[in-house]
Every structure is written in C-alpha cells, then in structure tokens.
Amino acid sequence: MTRKNAFYAQSGGVTAVINASACGVIETARKHRDKIGKVYAGRNGIIGALTEDLIDTSKETATAIAALHHTPAGAFGSCRYKLKGLDENRREYERLIEVFEAHDIGYFFYNGGGDSADTCLKVSQLSERMGYPIQAIHVPKTVDNDLPITDNCPGFGSVAKYIAVSTLEASFDVASMAKTSTKVFVLEVMGRHAGWIAAAGGLAAGEPYNLPIVILFPEIPFDQDKFLARVEEMVQRHGYCSVVVSEGVRGPDGKFLSDQGMRDAFGHAQLGGVAPVVAGIVKEGLGYKYHWGVADYLQRAARHIASKTDVEQAYAMGQAAVRLALQGNNAVMPTIERRSNKPYRWGVGTAPLKKVANVEKMMPRSFITRDGFGITEKCRDYLAPLIKGEDYPPFRNGLPRYIRLKNQAVPKKLPPFELK
Amino acid sequence: MTRKNAFYAQSGGVTAVINASACGVIETARKHRDKIGKVYAGRNGIIGALTEDLIDTSKETATAIAALHHTPAGAFGSCRYKLKGLDENRREYERLIEVFEAHDIGYFFYNGGGDSADTCLKVSQLSERMGYPIQAIHVPKTVDNDLPITDNCPGFGSVAKYIAVSTLEASFDVASMAKTSTKVFVLEVMGRHAGWIAAAGGLAAGEPYNLPIVILFPEIPFDQDKFLARVEEMVQRHGYCSVVVSEGVRGPDGKFLSDQGMRDAFGHAQLGGVAPVVAGIVKEGLGYKYHWGVADYLQRAARHIASKTDVEQAYAMGQAAVRLALQGNNAVMPTIERRSNKPYRWGVGTAPLKKVANVEKMMPRSFITRDGFGITEKCRDYLAPLIKGEDYPPFRNGLPRYIRLKNQAVPKKLPPFELK
What we know:
Oligomer: homodimer
Number of helices of chain A: 12
Helix content of chain A: 25-40%
Distance between the termini of chain A: 36 Å
Radius of gyration of chain A: 23 Å
Number of domains of chain A: 2
CATH class of the largest domain in chain A: Alpha Beta
Number of strands of chain A: 13
CATH topology of the largest domain in chain A: Rossmann fold
Mean pLDDT of chain A: 95
CATH architecture of the largest domain in chain A: 3-Layer(aba) Sandwich
Structural class of chain A: alpha/beta
C-alpha cells in the first residue's frame, strides 16, 4: 500500500458533533502516517474539492485538533451542493480527478446525511468508471436521524437532548405561570420529513416527570379538532400544557401548516414558522394565553448540552471511516449498531453506500401513540440511551472555549474552475 | 422577639434561579427556629395569601429544599396579580390581615420584580396604616435586570449566559453554512422595555471570538436603512452575520416592530414575533438566505446553563432577606453591590422599598455603541462577571433532576375569598 493523502469534507446542515467526527478522522489518520500522508479538508464541503480550495490540517497542532471534539458546527465550512450524475456533468468528475491527482489524494471522506451519501457514492465510482483509484468512505451525520441501516445518526442524540431538556425546562416555567397567565407553550423543532426530533420532546412526558406534552409529528396529518381536544384535556387535568411541533407538520390538504399565506400590512408574503400558527389555533380555539418559541439553529448548535453518547459515536464514526479506508474499502459507511438496550451497548458496523444514498428512514408508526400525539414505550426505549451523559466543553469567562482553526490553504496547482 | 411564621411567595415571570432564592429563604429560616416558626409559601404568589392557599414548606425534607437550588421556574407557582392601593381595595388588605392573623404570620417575603416590589411595599404598610405587625421584605428577581439600586437582578445573569452561549453557537453554525446557504441568523430575545438581555448577545462579539453580531435594542428606534447597511457590511467582511433582536424594538413611529398587522390567508390577525419581521426585512432588502429563532421561555428556564454567579447571588438574596427580617426591618430589599470589577467582587446591601417599587432601570446610553448596534467596553465590563461560572444541575438518564415539591396545603381556617 503506497502512501496517499486524504480528503475530508463536511456537508449539509452542521451539528453539535460533526467536528468530533472530523477529530476522529484526523487523529486516526495521524496515527497511520505510513499509509495516510496529509489530511486535506475541503473548504465548504465538496466545493473545496472542485475549486481546489483545500485546507492543510497538518498545520494544526494536536491540541487544536483535539479541541474539535468539543466545538460545534463545521470547522472547515459546509455546503449544500449535490453532484449531478456522472453522465449529466462529467466535467465535475474530471475536475475532481484533476484536483485529487494534483494533490495525491487517494482517500475521500465525506461527512454528511443522505444527499451527501449520494455525492460520496458518485465519487466512489471514479475508480471503476474513470480509472482514478480512490476510496470513498461516507461518515454519517444528520440531526434528522433519517439515514438507513445505522441505528441512529451522529448529531441526532445531541439535538434530542437539547429538545428534551428545553421542553422539560419550559414546561416547568409554564406550570408556574399557568394560574394567572400562560397556559400553553408551543415549541417548534426541526424535522421537515421525519418526526425524530419532535419525538425527543416526549422524553419529558415520561418518568419521572410525566409532564403534559402534546407532540405534532410530520408523519401524522394535523387534525385541528382532535388537537384542540387533546390540549384542552391536558389543561383541564394539569392546568397547563406544552406542545412540541415539528416544522414539517402538514394539514389534511398536504400543505405545510407553516405555509398559511401570511401577509404583512403591505400585503407582502411572510414565511412564518409553524409555532405561531399553532399558538394562534390554540388562542382562537380555546382562548388560552400562550407563548411560543422556535429553537432553529440553537438546537443543532448547542454543544454546551451535547449528549455524551452522541459525542462518542460521532468520534467513533470518524475513527472507523479511516480504519475502513486502511482496510481497502470503497463506497461504504460505518454505522452504529445497537447491541443491547438495557444496559445500552453499541458497536460499529458497515453499510454499502448504495444502500444508504437517497434512502430516508422514517419514524416507525409503532413509535407514535395511537392518538398521534405522543411517543410509545418502544420509542422511549430507543431514544433514552441516545441522550445519555453530558460532555461539557471547557469554559472561560462564562463562555465555552470553542476552537477556530487556522484553516491554512494548500497552495493551488491548477487553473481555476467555475462552479455551474 | 416572639416567634412568628413567615410567608414567602414568587411573583411575575419566573427565572432559572428564583427557586435558589426560595432555598435561601427557607434554609436560613430553618436555622432560626427560635424566631421563625414555619415558612408558608403562597400557592401562585400573593393569590395564595388572599385565597388562604398556603403551602407548608416544613413538610419538605432538607434534601428537597436543597434541590430548589438547581431547579428552574417557580416551585410554588407564580402569578401576575398586582394589589391595588389601600384606598382602592381595602377589602384585599383586610383579607391579608385575616389570613396572616389566622396563621400567625409576622414575616412577608415577596420574590419578584418592579411590580412585585410595589405589592410588597403595600403589604409593608399594613403595620403602620392598619395596625397589623408585619415585616415585609422584597427578594429581588427579574430577568429584565431593570430594578433600581441593586447592581443587577438575580435571574438576569443566567438569561444573559444563555443568550451569549446561544448566540455564539448559532453564529458558529451560520458561519459554516454561509458559503452556499444561510448568511444571516436572527435571534429574538426578551426585553420589552430595556435591552439588557439583547446586550448579552454582544458578549460573543468581543474577545476572543469577535463575531459579526448586530444588536437591535428597544432603546434605539429601528432605522431600516442603517440596519441593512450594517448587516451588509458584516456579510461582506465576514461572509455572514447574526442579529440579536429585543422583542421590544420599535420603529420610528413608536410602534413595536413585531406588530406588523400580520394576517393569515383568512384575514385573521396574527401576533407574530419580531424575529420573522427582521428576517423578512433582510431577505427583502439584501436577498440573503436567513434563519430565525425565538428563545422565549427557553432563555429564562435554562437552568442547565445557569450562571454560577447568578445562582450564588439568588441564594444570597434569599438568605439576606431573612437576616434583614430578623434584624427588625420592614419595607426593604436586599441588593447586590458591586465592590470591584477585576477581580469581580460583590456584597449584599439594602434598599428601601419605596425607592425600588415601580422604578425601571434602563440601559445607560453609554452601554450602547454610537451606531446603536453593539455594546461598549463599559457594558462588556458590566456584563462579563454576571455570566461567569457554570453550575450544572445533577442529571439522570440524560435529563436534569429537577425537584417537584409535595406542596402540601396548610388546612384552611377561614371562609373562602373571591378574587375580583
């Protein structure tokens, strides 16, 4: 095996722990200098490869790389950019080969979700279809938890923990206020297609707190009458209620509930969130005073309350990706395998990329209660271990000490390339 | 000094640390059983006193009371209810005296903000004007940080820490996405009248991060052209920008920016937040892709990321309130006195309630940069120590272990009372 450089890049929406995977890739590669020369990171994902905008991670100290372990978001920049098929845009693939050749790159690590797995799969085909020897390994990551085969996705556990903790805390708040003021709190969470994140709000509805929480899943068409009846029942019984609503909830007409054709006084369309819509429905239907919040980026960037399990798994996926490469694999992705539930034990498996790319894993219907507003014991058993453990970043002067790398560019050797 | 029971209640919007003050009151009272018999908590603030709905805190174990130290929100329930003047509603004051007499209450501890200080002041006058001997001590609390005399208010430091940490984390996120996706992130924070909480977002704009953050204060009338120019400058220089906007920002016409006369497709008025409005202005004016979040209750309930300084001060205020009572005071409030900045040192002072009630402390103009979009060094020096230190709650199975007390009612001795 000759020594080759590696390319690593981050893709799609970032997470609290994607840099822990980067840390796993880089630290493990550094332990195998006989086989892996330098790790070049793509600045802004695959775009960095296409534009030959490479970052030389060997310029970073071991301490700086170790600090990626506790730093949220994408240290090298991410991108939303999907490679077209080889036949549709051959030019991009030829460019990738030029860049890889110019920088002696033989390993391609791509850290992302379903779309990115597709990009990684396409790159893996360079070997076979264009004769350039490359090993492409996908490193799983997505807060949406919707990759197939792997038991769960790095990034999800920390969002789930953030949403569970926030729902718990906000519910304590509204419980205190309910006598004379707010009775219903609505929290909007991410999840366009799958309700995994919303489901995490249900963890506060279980033991030991048993809080009155109504969940609105994208999997369940919104039924206004049933919803209002459920909220009313909760308020009558507990005095208050929290609603966790997925951004992707749709009405019976199939349209997003957030897409209410809202207009300002001047008639301009406003893209609102779903939380104010749901809060408005509660106010109009039941007359209760409400508050609403939208977690948005806060939920997926919240490294300060990351799940220890999630951080460990994210690191392990980076580590495993390098091991898979060193074992000669191409077009694969390391996975998390659940070995047992109580006690929770997990290990690392492998999945072929062609079974991963563009496949979305939805919430099983058996994870949602029959009435559609809560999670089942089965779902709770699945989620609980994923939020377990705390892994606090170091703090200084009251703020987390997150690392910003030097991100020094590798000198370019090729003419510029225009992205289409 | 004869032995008397004490009444304690929580009032107004709750915080991450108001229960730490409750803990300070109850633990300190328990050390002085010769002078203070039982501590009765009002269920839902002053309403508990009026309706004789008292909670016997002596039924709680020392461990349960100690757990209040790390439990957010109001353990006994809060209220938004302001006593009218003695001449306007004499009936309420007579009822208070009846309840206090029936339960042998000689100490009144009221834990709240400016409005609550007014209620506490009115109760303190029972002694002088109605001949019932009571010592009324106000325990300061408000996330708005707008009480006068005290250097800062318990509850504020933890919100400030949450907003500073969240702004930092979300900024890391948007920085990763900016190349091909979101360039501007807008975070809405509390603060109807004063920009203290919004100012905390500015802590991430200082050393060591120097992030591009634009703050919109309620103190500064919104100037759309200047705002867009500032955002554009940030995006040009850094590639992205975060905006922290106070819910109380008003346009040049004096109207809340959030009050845009938004209507849904059916013409129903929607009470929106200010974040989507600001995001819409950015999109329309600059065309950048944006994301927005609304922290709402999450910010003030976030005990998981409370400031250690804040927790200590909240506890100290509860402690000091009892000491002031034992020293024979009436109509006073313990205060936080800043003794030095570097190193930060603070002590406990005292303020007469008549100088506290209904007085709002605004942000000094010298705390806001000349352009109106940032905080000055002076403001940073003021804020920095208040977010210092972490004070994590214990966790179990991935969730904080917050206490819910038994809240056992004291048997009623009086006929019911109708609230007006």
